[in-house]
Amino acid sequence: MDVHFSWFTPTNGDGSFIGLKKPEREPNLDYLIRIAQTAEKAGFCGILVPVGTPYLDSWMVGSALIHHTKHIRPLIAIRPGFIAPSLSAKMASTLDQFSDGRIDINIVTGGSPHELGQDGDFIPHDERYERARDFLQVMNKLWEQRGIDYEGTHYSIKDGTLVPPNRQSKIPIYFGGSSDAAKDITARFGNVYLQWGEPIEQVRAQIEDVRRRAASYGRTLEFGIRIHVIVRDTEHEAWEAAEKLVSMIDPEVESRMKNYYRETDSEAQRRMNGLLHGDFRFGKYKWAGIGRVRKGAGTAVVGTPEQVKQGLEEYMDAGVNHFILSGFPHLEEAERVGELLLPLFRIDMPRASI
Q1: What's the CA gap between 207 and 195, in Å, rounded?
Q2: pTM of the model
Q3: What digits encode the pLDDT tens for the residues 113-125?
Q4: Among 101, 310, 311, 350, which residue's beta carbon has the most beta carbons within 10 A?
Q5: Hey, where are the domains in the chain?
Q6: What DSSP character marks residue 292?
């Protein structure tokens, strides 16, 4: 099984500490480009560009990274409903052309009614997934056919065409979510089912569920994990770095995150919230402390290179072969992970000449 490692673009700020009222490093263009170039040189094959209220626009950031890198694949997160699917398909195919076929798309329906409302989107949870289904049907048809007519619950297209056509025959789609609606959409339209770093038993159960659903549609998928890593030469140094990372949390920031967790309608987020107790440790070298002040991916694998490798291999044994990793600050940690961890998985690491 080929294993793919990607990094993360911190488009809401970065630094050595999390949970501050203001990030130590602002997400300006030069800094984000440096992160992408460092990740490329370190041997990562992809880099996730997030979407949401606290982040910079993912299309613009993804375009900038494409034009300042040579090999790494931006995984551009987008939300159905904010831009028409026909225009989203055109934007994706344009970047696909500009990048010579090295972009992926991550569909994110959103998990916070408050955050979605900040952008004027007040559609309830189940209806958001119905809209995502319509959205993906339109995008796929435009990517696969010269002209389309489409009549759905949320979108109608008459004599739709796509200019320019894709460089790739079909741009890969990453999709996540723990609800039945999310799993069914992934099974029908996704290429990679993406989860957060939950306990291995939950990850394995969801993989088996989505795999069965995909088989019912005559499809096969690959599976991914979005998780942080804190890797150091010794176990003591690694856990010391983990505690340092959360040592400056502002009480107001943590209180605000607790309010977010109480009002979320995301099943996956509720499951992650269940890990926030005790010393936040679980499984093999796993830690949920980042989730105190970070929504979504709030867990990390912590330890020596060999220990972190073992922690990730737990997921590999369950069927995962895509890892989207990150660490704080993302610039220095991309280089560290590239030096200490990635060579343990691949002897001949593809490195870019920058």
Answers
A1: 9
A2: 0.94
A3: 777 777 788 888 8
A4: 311
A5: 4-344
A6: G
Class for domain 4-344, per CATH? alpha beta
Please, what's the b/e burial string for 184-199 (b: 16 or more CB within 10 A of its CB; e: otherwise)?
bbbbbbbbbbbbbbbb
pLDDT digits (tens, 9 = 90+) for 187-240: 999 999 999 999 999 999 999 999 999 999 999 999 999 999 999 999 999 999
* Residue closest to 210 by CA, chosen among 184, 191, 174, 175: 184
Q: Which long-range contacts (CB under 8 A, 24 or more apart) does 159-168 make?
A: 160/86, 162/86, 162/89, 162/90, 162/93, 163/90, 164/93, 164/94, 164/97, 165/93, 166/92, 166/93, 166/96, 166/97, 166/101, 167/93, 167/96, 167/97, 167/99, 167/100, 167/101, 168/96, 168/101
From residue 325, alpha-carbon distances to 52, 63, 341 in Å are 19, 21, 11
For the cut 70, the answer to whether the pLDDT of residue 353 exceeds it is no
> Which run of H or of E encompasses 314?
helix 305-318
Inter-axis angle of helices 29-42 and 330-340, to 10 degrees?
0
Alpha-carbon distance 122 to 132, whole Å? 14
